[in-house]
Fold this protein.
Amino acid sequence: MTTPLRIDKGDDLIAHAVRLLEAAVKAKDAISVSKLAAALMLLSGIRTGSLLTGNIAVKEGATSHSILFKERPSKKAVETPLLCEAKLFANAANEMKRMQGEYFTPTEADANYKKGIALQLKKMVKFNGTNSRDPTPGDARWIFIAICYNKHSFQKTGITIQEFANWVSKSGKHDTKFPYQEIGVSGKLAIFPESVRTPLPLELEKRVARRI
């Protein structure tokens, strides 16, 4: 039996991603679109096809660590928790949008950037485990979920990590199965103050209330 893939130093990975965002904001064209996108994905869990349409709208959310995100202006904004400050994330996302300079459908965005993002994630993320492999763009969302659920202490709100995965994957259904047995984070994580935790969506609040 193979052991699950693990990230040993989740806080170090997040700190590295934050430094990439800071570099992108400080100097135009300091890093590539693919490298910046990989960092943004690790810090937000947003999918490649949604993040890289070149037409996103991002603004600060209810807390200092959440954003209101649209993959294009005509879409409804969705509040998304973050592993960094919302202002930095929004500024870096807007810089990425400027560098892209053109619009894509989600399918086109995924096709155009997936390979480049995979190469950047390979440099940034090291899995441990007997069945270790290179990370994929899809893994960025699972890594985010595993770290964010714990760093923001979402277990204290009464939701499970599967419910958290459905929420941040923009799915109200149980079709976004979190790979518990495959990907996780070992070691301690520094916990964020509860004051920066994103409020639960109303439907999740109701579901938790029914269980009490």
